[in-house]
């Protein structure tokens, strides 16, 4: 479930973002309430509320007073844009470092990527 | 329920169990009181519950608790020895006391919980297994619906499914009836996700009081070349270190600044999080210390 | 009031049942004895003057040693509990004195039917006061031992004096040493001494129990 090594509210927020990115949570879809979330994952409701508040602040979710929290219409696009921004720093650079560390020439890596592209991006 | 403790000291003869402790709980949260065996958890809670006359002050919502009817009404402490359950009494009779003496007692809920934990109402309290006796304590604590409810080592002897049933019941009832709940334990890993705030005590003193999630972000494990680690950790609060060959890992407590993160990258140091449980172990006295 | 009511509700019926059981038991024993020899003493008086006071003493211990910590654990102050318990001892002693008196009446009927002889017994008031003082003395000793551990031993000589004064008016309960004339001199005024003993026992209980910590029970 959640590990004890980093703030749980951040783990919850990341999980919901991942669900939005993957499409498991769609635009204007209602997310679980704080209490439902707390009982389901056996976490403190204040922690769940903090995660939801962060997502509201980041405009991933929006509140309907008295009803609950919903995924905002542009959440997915926004998260995708953020993901693109971080992609090279968080995914490509470490991959390059790893390739160099185990002695794979970058040219080989590029060739592999080109193969993917020629196969239609698979 | 707000709790204010000021200069609290508890002594048993020559032994000082709580040494000049001060803190406040703002209330309506689930607090974890963490400490090693003999660190003073039970003594502290006993003073909070008016079980003994405090030296120093203990106030609940601004009222001194000891022998104060208005404040005492609001408190329930269940210690692991189950003070409210006489060994020779049947469980049903034990629950009767609560129903008779507590204004806030919910007897239907008590019976429901007893059923959940499979405690026979006709069984004598002294004939219950340790786990069931702990569960009976949980029943008394939760059914009291007290604005300040304290559970001391309530998981003792419970098997894993029972402990999870306990956590679920606790969480559910807390959400239905928000109140101040203090749970003491040294089994942190299982319980920590339920806690909003954590108090760590050691040797009768308060080591720290912090939001659980903040605490989780406070510890960093720095791993790398021994001399680089030493350079990096100079001036930081180092809770513990271990070395393997030329590699060294140091546990650092406290948030790291951006420039420190940059420096760590320059030195090729690996930074990782520390589990709450490990933080606790290192914040309290190390084994083989003066204890 | 809640404490007083709950003590009454949970303990009075139990005590009455013990008394009834004791009465039946004594009757059976008396009939058994009558097979071998003539009956010359009241069996019920042995119970009321000797055994019952120890039962009341034990009840006093039970109330402080067992019930007080439970009351505190359920959010009641010691003061509230002691107020309820003090009133309860009066009701309990009254109940037991009435039951004792009913016992004597019933026993008297049976004895005259069987043509047995009973020795004399004390007045209901004397029994009431004896029960009252024994019960509160039990509370006092329990409070002393619970609060001071082995140091509570000091309560024993005080307790002995307190309970001894109540036995004067009750035949078959033992005589007071040293001051045999004084009670005779005082006559019914001796009851006032018993009341004083009750008040002293109660005051000592309050003084000790007001600050008493709730200790961990060893399991």
From TrEMBL, chain A:
**Pfam families reported in the protein's UniProt record:** GntR
Enumerate the Gene3D superfamilies for this protein.
Winged helix-like DNA-binding domain superfamily/Winged helix DNA-binding domain (1.10.10.10)
Q: Which UniProt keywords apply?
A: DNA-binding, Transcription, Transcription regulation
Q: Name one GO molecular function term.
A: DNA-binding transcription factor activity
Q: Where is the HTH gntR-type domain?
A: 6-74
Task: Check the record and name the PANTHER family matching this protein.
Answer: GNTR-FAMILY TRANSCRIPTIONAL REGULATOR (PTHR38445:SF10), HTH-TYPE TRANSCRIPTIONAL REPRESSOR YTRA (PTHR38445)
Q: What is this protein called?
A: Transcriptional regulator, GntR family
Identify the species of origin. Lentzea albidocapillata subsp. violacea
Automatic annotation (TrEMBL), chain B:
Give the superkingdom in one word. Bacteria
Database matches in Gene3D superfamilies: P-loop containing nucleotide triphosphate hydrolases
Q: List the top taxonomic levels of the source.
A: Bacteria, Bacillati, Actinomycetota, Actinomycetes, Pseudonocardiales
Q: Is Metal-binding there in the keyword field? A: no
Q: Which residues form the ABC transporter domain?
A: 3-228
Q: What is this protein called?
A: ABC-2 type transport system ATP-binding protein
GO MF entry, a single one: ATP binding
The reply to whether Lipid metabolism figures as a keyword in the UniProt entry is no
Q: Which UniProt keywords apply?
A: ATP-binding, Nucleotide-binding
UniProtKB/TrEMBL annotation, chain C:
Q: Transmembrane region positions?
A: 12-35, 55-74, 81-104, 124-145, 152-170, 190-209
Alphabetized UniProt keyword annotations: Membrane, Transmembrane, Transmembrane helix
Name it: Uncharacterized protein
Organism source for this protein? Lentzea albidocapillata subsp. violacea
């Amino acid at each position: 479930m959640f590990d004890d090594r980093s703030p749980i509210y951040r783990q919850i927020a990341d999980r919901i973002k991942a669900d939005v990115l993957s499409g498991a949570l769609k635009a204007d879809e209602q997310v679980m309430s704080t209490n439902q979330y707390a009982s389901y994952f056996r976490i403190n409701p204040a922690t769940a509320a903090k995660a939801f508040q962060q997502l509201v602040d980041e405009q991933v979710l929006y509140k309907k007073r008295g009803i609950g929290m919903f995924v905002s219409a542009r959440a997915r696009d926004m998260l995708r844009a953020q993901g693109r921004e971080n992609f090279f720093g968080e995914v490509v650079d470490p991959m390059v470092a790893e390739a160099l560390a185990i002695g794979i020439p970058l040219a080989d890596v590029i060739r592999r990527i080109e193969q993917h592209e020629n196969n239609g991006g698979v | 329920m707000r709790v204010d403790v000021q200069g609290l000291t508890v002594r048993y003869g020559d032994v000082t169990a709580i040494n000049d402790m001060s803190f406040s709980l703002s209330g309506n949260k689930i607090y974890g009181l963490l400490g090693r065996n003999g660190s003073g958890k039970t003594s502290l809670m006993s003073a909070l519950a008016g079980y003994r006359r405090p030296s120093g002050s203990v106030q609940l919502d601004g009222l001194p608790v000891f022998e104060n009817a208005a404040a005492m009404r609001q408190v329930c402490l269940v210690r692991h020895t189950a003070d409210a359950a006489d060994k020779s009494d049947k469980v049903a009779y034990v629950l009767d006391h609560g129903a008779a003496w507590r204004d806030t007692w919910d007897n239907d809920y008590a019976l429901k919980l007893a059923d959940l934990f499979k405690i026979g109402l006709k069984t004598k309290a002294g004939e219950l297994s340790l786990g069931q006796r702990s569960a009976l304590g949980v029943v008394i604590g939760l059914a009291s619906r007290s604005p300040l409810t304290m559970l001391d080592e309530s998981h003792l002897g419970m098997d894993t499914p029972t402990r999870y049933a306990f956590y679920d019941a606790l969480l559910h009832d807390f959400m239905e009836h928000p109140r101040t709940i203090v749970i003491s334990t040294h089994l942190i890993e299982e319980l920590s996700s339920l806690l909003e705030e954590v108090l760590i005590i050691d040797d009768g003193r308060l080591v720290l009081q912090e939001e659980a999630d903040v605490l989780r972000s406070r510890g960093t494990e720095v791993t790398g070349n021994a001399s680089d680690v030493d350079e990096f950790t100079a001036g930081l609060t180092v809770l513990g270190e271990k070395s393997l060959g030329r590699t060294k890992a140091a546990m650092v407590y406290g948030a790291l600044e951006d420039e420190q993160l940059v420096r760590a990258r320059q030195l090729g140091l690996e930074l990782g999080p520390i589990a709450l449980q490990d933080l606790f172990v290192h914040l309290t006295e190390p084994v083989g210390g003066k204890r | 009031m809640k404490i007083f009511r709950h003590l009454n509700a949970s303990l009075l019926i139990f005590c009455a049942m013990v008394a009834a059981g004791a009465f039946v038991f004594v009757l059976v024993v008396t009939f058994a004895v009558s097979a071998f020899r003539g009956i010359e003493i009241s069996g019920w008086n042995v119970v009321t003057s000797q055994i019952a006071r120890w039962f009341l003493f034990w009840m006093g211990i039970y109330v402080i040693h067992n019930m007080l910590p439970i009351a505190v654990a359920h959010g009641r102050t010691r003061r509230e509990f002691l107020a309820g318990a003090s009133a309860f001892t009066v009701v309990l002693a009254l109940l037991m004195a009435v039951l004792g008196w009913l016992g004597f009446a019933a026993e008297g009927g049976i004895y005259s039917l069987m043509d047995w002889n009973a020795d004399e017994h004390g007045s209901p008031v004397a029994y009431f006061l004896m029960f009252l003082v024994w019960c509160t003395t039990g509370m006092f000793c329990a409070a002393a031992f619970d609060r001071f551990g082995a140091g509570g031993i000091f309560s024993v000589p005080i307790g002995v004096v307190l309970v001894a004064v109540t036995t004067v008016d009750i035949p078959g309960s033992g005589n007071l040493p040293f001051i045999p004339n004084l009670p005779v001199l005082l006559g019914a005024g001796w009851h006032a001494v018993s009341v004083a003993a009750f008040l002293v026992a109660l005051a000592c209980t309050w003084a000790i129990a007001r600050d008493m910590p709730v200790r961990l029970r060893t399991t």
